[in-house]
Amino acid sequence: MSGKLRILPLGGLGEIGKNMTVVEYEDRLLVIDCGLRFPTAEMVGIDLVLPDFDVLRGRLDDIEGIIITHGHEDHLGALPWVLRDLRSEGELPPIFGAPLTMAMARSKLDEHKLKEVDVEDVSAGETLELGPFSIELIHMTHSIPDMVAIAVTTDLGTVLFTGDYKFDQTPVDGPPADMARLAQLGAEGVLVLCGDSTNADRPGFSPSEAGIGPHLLQAFAQCEGRIVVTCFASNIHRVQQVIDAAQLVNRKVALLGRSMRKNANIARSLGHLDVPEGIMLQPRQIDDFPDERLIIVSTGSQGEPLSALRRMAFNDHPQVDLRRGDTVMFAATPVPGNERAVNETIDRLYAIGCRVVTASDTPIHASGHGYEEELKLMLNLTQPRYVMPFHGDHKRLELHGKLAEAVGISPDNIFKGQNGLPLEIDERGARFGKPERAGMIFVDGVEIGDVADVALRDRRMLSADGIFVVVATISEQDGKSVADPEIIFRGVPFPEEAEELVGDIGACIDRTLERAAKDNIREIDVLQSMLHDDLAAFVYDRLRRRPMVLPVVVEV
């Protein structure tokens, strides 16, 4: 054995989403996954959240490749943003993954005009030699086809990244996970297992995706009007189950949402989606068919602000107006952190008069992540020397660690980490290294950048309490006010005595300016600071609110 192996998670630990890990050996880098997550409610105006990949800047030439486990946004979605940012440093590294995953990657890169990137298909069972890394892709089952685990072997040993997985014995898209190869790796020796922790809090085994179809069929048969099924745009299995059930109840299917249609087309072209002739409708044809003959498959299962279902719920969709008699089925469960947005969407649907069916009402969703017994099975098959729980909030990482202990792994060999905390392994053993920067990068519109906390704080203040702009005109000679202050307010919930309050604010401004003139204060920035502090205190005292106060001082 020689050298030091370093495993640095940039996302996915202490959270669900933005999975990205950098593996370093002999000064060469390998990136595993490149995902994003969606903003929380307090991230006002933010569209996407990316992992902070600052550690890659200045090291583009050291990156041997980027390998993607599967096509979900939390593992693939940040790829074009990261590459777009790094390309100014030189030639971009190649991207590797299974065929469906790479087809989705190419689509994303084309949208961002990243034509120069080398994107290579690698099937499960194949190996790659990239610098000091020997990489093998291992077939797994998940809620999207072409899911692979990644075994990265160096002189020190093998690190197994499970990606998202479940041990589904009756998958809808082909063979079950390659348990034989996992067991063989275990017999050969796995140095570190970096394992999915998403459902470490759920006992037993996860239900098979194959069991969802009959329940969808039963649910469809009980509906008289239009049916809207919402699920992840990349859940090709669920779309297939809906199409199969729709055919049996003699309904047409329309796909809504750009990502839903795009992913379905990619999956269909690669043979992962079997669509009977004549069953699909274009969105513009929805109004041409009777309600009892129609099923709409839509994005928006997580309450995403611009998704098709969210727009329908708020009467803002160009093709579909929901109405009483429609049934909306949530064939997905909320990702931790999205519960509020999902509940808001459901409540709006009830307000319209829709019937809402969720996975808690009838089993129309099966998780793509293994439960406790499957996590134990993975541990027992691979028999790792060290375990590093991945892909989960801190609670689930802790529970995954307990499961590892339960199957006989020493607590000293279980490393429950966090983003930016590297696990370093050499011939002396494993330990956490010096923390690296690993925060969040916000996408605001079409640009990325570290939107400062102060910017988000200002946005929250504006959205909650509004803004005051006051313009004060003072004499250049003595600093005294020479005109009535101009007061502009927007979004401020005024009481009925607004006119009196504006007058009082003017008096407050005059008092501040008189005090400044008396103290011979002439600097504009100091005057504006004094006005801000006095006005903010006055407004809070009167309104019990904290609007943004922007004072402007003009000398004449």
From TrEMBL:
Residues 17-216 form the Metallo-beta-lactamase domain. One of its GO terms (molecular function) is RNA binding. CDD domains: RNaseJ_MBL-fold (cd07714). Signal peptide: none annotated. GO terms for biological process: RNA processing. Gene3D superfamilies: 3.10.20.580, Metallo-hydrolase/oxidoreductase, Ribonuclease Z/Hydroxyacylglutathione hydrolase-like. Keywords: Cytoplasm, Endonuclease, Exonuclease, Hydrolase, Metal-binding, Nuclease, RNA-binding, Zinc. SMART domains: Lactamase_B (SM00849). InterPro entries: Metallo-B-lactamas, RibonucZ/Hydroxyglut_hydro, RMMBL, RNase_J, RNase_J_2, RNase_J_b_CASP, RNase_J_bac, RNase_J_C. This is Unannotated protein. The lineage of its organism: unclassified sequences, metagenomes, ecological metagenomes.
